[in-house]
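Morning F.,

Quick status update on the modeling queue. The single chain you submitted on Monday has been processed. Sequence for confirmation:
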Amino acid sequence: MIQLRFLSGPDIDSLGIGPAEVINAVQGAVDAHGRGLTVFEPRTHLVPDNGGAGHFNVLRGHVGTLGEHGLSGVKVVGDFVDNYQYGLPSELALITVYDPTTGVPLAIMDATWITEARTGAMTAVGAKFLARPDSRILGHVGARGTAFSNVTMLDSLFPLDEIRVTSRRPESREAFAAQLRAATDTPVRAVDTAAEAFEGADILVEASRLQEPQPLLRTAAVKPGAFVVPYGTISAVELDLLDVMDKVVVDDWSESRSGRFGALRAHVDTGRLSEKTLHAQIGEIVTGRKPGREHPDERILYWHRGLSILDVAVAHLILTRAEAADTGTLLRYR
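Structure tokens below.
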């Protein structure tokens, strides 16, 4: 008999996994990627005939450094911007993980929190190597699920004096600011526009939920020494943004070139971002093969699209903890 473990959202919540553990797991996956110990293919998109309501991303990956033989996984995550109207997260996800030596499925788990937490952790890992250590002001556009992990994980790493947040809907940004105030002692201010959020900021994160391209992150807002993270599905930046950057770093160049979505899709398609203009993949920096921030006044942009290996790494963390606590439901597979 073969059994697999099902882990619901509440099961995962009960494990009490903290931000530092997720950051460590994600950095471990990035390090493995930098050393050539991961396998994955660029995500694919399933776009149903649903009038533009949303689409699905399918991510597949393997991390060879997890456990005795590594761990393989497949995640399907929906991207439905208007789900707030139904009281649902915009990104609902499910992941299955497998023994790579036999193909035996090991677990099925809610990956909604995984998607949020690994995204915030990837922003944080990039910031550890690319942002100024004395960064004081964080400007964040977007209040979707990944936003909370973005802000709180960055707040855990830097001596922030102020966090500014905004989003399209006033009720959304006010609720997000209140959620953050309950989680941090750093002053949090909800502002009306992206321009207000980004003005004079040391760390600028653009995580908007646009349906059509719109330049929310203006090139002129990026001051010397700034660390910029644009990763909305639809572009919210100007085409000349890369012209002022001293370094551009991505999570994986093959992933950056794939698909029809992404914050810098137009920059890749027009050749403004290419293998020649790219400074590094983040794994090359984490492993020490290429430098991260070298000068306080460098403007550095970091574009991460969400690698499947991060989902696998956090799923491994969850599964290991769940097995030790005997959490979840064992299901007969065959």
